[in-house]
Amino acid sequence: MKKVLVVDDSLSVARQLEKIISESGDFTCVGHAKNGAEAIKMNHTEDPDIICMDMNMPGMDGLTALRTLSVMDKEVKVVMVTSLGGVGDKFTEALKLGAKNVISKPFDADTVLRILREL
Amino acid sequence: LIHQFSLCDKGQDMAVKFFGQFMVEHGLVSSEDLLKAIYLQDKNNLKLGEMAVSMGLITPVDIQRAHNSQMSRDMKLGDLLVEMGLLTPVLLNDVITHQKKTHLYIGEALVQIGALTGDELQQHLDAFKADQAKYESNGIELPLRTNHDAIWEMTADLTFKMVTRVLDLKFRPGKCTHLSSVIPDNFMLAAMDLSGDVSARYLISVSEGLQKSIAKAILHEESVENEPVEVLEDTVMEFINVVCGNVAAKASQVNVAIDINPPVVIHPPTDGLPIPSGHTALSFPIHIEDGDTMELILLIKNS
């Protein structure tokens, strides 16, 4: 089973994503980071295959963390899960920094799992 | 007028999107192909100054002078080039017309790199337009003029749509009013600061009952009676995060850049939250079917 790390400052979003991931049968959730800095640390300790990460977080935001992760770890696949997905500049920047996809909030389980399975 | 979308609208595609994102999220093109198309657009779609240079009307040194001048003046580059005597208004118009004529749209770029055929592009564009039609504005009137009226009307309209789409609540929007001194007391407010081309604070004020309704919808739970306070409050913050992110997406379609900041919770004092000086406060009541009322408040910084 592929390991997924969830990164979001929102407890409720993290809970939704963890539920979708753990009930899928294909993925296991290895933890929840609340900002970009925690995500970088947990990427080191938990060694996930996939990171689902928000953009707008206090402290280190998602795009800054993505920039660091893309240099530090070429293996991990990052999918941004954000309410800013429809902002063209943010979306493009995420792809240019190496994100595999960008899921808009509000999201549904089918879209999240389809995108994770396509990775 | 009760706002209620059919249930089949819920589920997929609940957010404001642009075409490239729609294509990647649906797996219709790969993110690699979209990036190639974006790079092709970047190469083809020249900025106003670059276009004027390519037409032989000004030099790169002229652009640099105009950019330097822009740092101290809030003017568009084209207007500044005219004011500096580097372009006539007629020539500026020629540059803008040529820019529009040669603009490569993302769909056309995807066809040019071979990721789509022309027929597939048309088919996907039709599906995209049908999907995004639900975010067309329904027209909301403000009681007074503010900075960026159209943005605040769109913000209220999108909030109403998200109350239906995300929270699945039936409601009737009340008349927008101007608050002159305080934001009335309520169980809790969630707030998000908006910056960039606008300067404002977005607030949603809810009762204890509505906080639970929002929590049930966001968490997809039948009951939230045993949920800790921080989770209940977080769901209201996440709701405004979703609304404001989609507001930023919609604003970007009309070239208004809005940055959003992480949301916060406010527990107002019993005599209400004073409105800071230099701000205009607009209230949009949202009368829920069960008799409760949620309130959207926009605190807009005056220019």
Query: What's the helix-strand series of chain B?
Result: HHHHHHHHHEEEEEHHEEEEE
Distance between the termini of chain B: 35 Å
Q: Averaged pLDDT of chain B, please?
A: 89
* Rg of Cα set of chain B: 23 Å
State the helicity of chain A in percent bands.
40-55%
DSSP strand count of chain B: 10
Structural class of chain B: alpha+beta
Compressed to H and E, one letter per element, the order of chain A equals EHEHEHEHEH
Number of strands of chain A: 5
Chains forming the largest contact: A-B, 37 and 42 residues
* Strand content bin of chain A: 15-25%
Quaternary form: heterodimer
Tell me, rounded to a whole number, the average pLDDT of chain A.
94
What general form of chain A does the structure show?
A: globular
| Major sheet: arrangement of strands of chain A | 2-1-3-4-5
Rough shape of chain B?
Answer: globular
Q: List low-pLDDT spans of chain B.
A: 1-11
Radius of gyration of chain A: 13 Å
Descriptive account of the structure:
The complex is a heterodimer of chains A (119) and B (303). Chain A is an alpha/beta fold and 119 residues long. Helix content of chain A is 45%, strand content 23%. Chain A has helices at 11-22, 36-46, 62-72, 88-96, 109-118; strands at residues 2-7, 27-33, 50-53, 77-82, 101-104. In chain A, strand 1, helix 1 (11-22) and strand 2 form a beta-alpha-beta unit. The longest helix of chain A has 12 residues, at 11-22. Chain B has eleven helices and ten strands. In chain B, the strands form two sheets. In chain B, strands 1, 2, 4, 5, 6, 7, 9 and 10 form an eight-stranded antiparallel beta sheet that branches. Chain B has a two-stranded antiparallel ribbon with strand order 3-8. Chain B is globular, with a radius of gyration of 23 Å. Chain B starts with 18 loop residues before the first helix and ends with a strand. The chains are: A alpha/beta (119), B alpha+beta (303). The A-B interface holds A 9-13, 15-16, 56-58, 82-89, 91-92, 95-96, 99-108, 110-111, 114-115, 118 and B 11-12, 14-18, 20-21, 24-25, 27, 31, 34-35, 38, 165-166, 215, 218-220, 230-231, 234-235, 237-238, 241-246, 248-250, 252, 257, 260-262.
